[in-house]
Write a structure and sequence with these properties.
The protein is an alpha+beta fold and 197 residues long. The protein contains four helices and ten strands, in the order βββαβαβββββαβα. It has helices spanning 36-49, 66-84, 135-147, 161-180, and strands at 5-11, 15-22, 29-32, 52-59, 93-100, 103-110, 116-120, 127-128, 131-132, 150-157.
Amino acid sequence: MAERLGQVARRTRETDIAVTWRLDGAGRAEIATGVPFFDHMLHQIARHGHFDLTVRARGDLEIDAHHTVEDTGITLGQALRRALGDGAGIWRYGSAFVPFDETLAFAAIDVSGRPYLHFDAAFPAQKVGEFDTELVLEFFRALAINAGITLHLKVHYGQNTHHMIEALFKAFARALSDAVALDPRVQGIPSTKGALL
């Protein structure tokens, strides 16, 4: 079996980002974006999705973290799409509920080639540390569109914003892990159209 690996480097006037995403990994992560809470969340994707993930990002943080977070989502989405190849043999669908103390989050994914994000989360606080919580939506939208996946995310309830966001990232990781898993029962592309991505 060929290694399912996506590598992307993306440079603009605002950011310089390099990503490596190994789907069949062990949950190892080397993350450095200059945004500590965001780094913590990307570690959740690697650990709870059993992916090996390397992210190196430099951005115009003197302005704010928006460009860095959104462009990292773009680059990760492109790397995920490359790692998936044509999608042959994958389960395609995944979903997960993840509790974190008082919080319950849900993610559902279809590796469909039809990019879409439904995001249903209202965070009590505008910031966690120096991280703007509105960037969670920007990150997942950029990732879903560039990966070509349908992604539904929902925080059912919660009080602590850190917990709510972390549960959402963990739910995404678990759902994605299931969706991209190889299943010997799946012969070829899991679509009646004969194509996914």
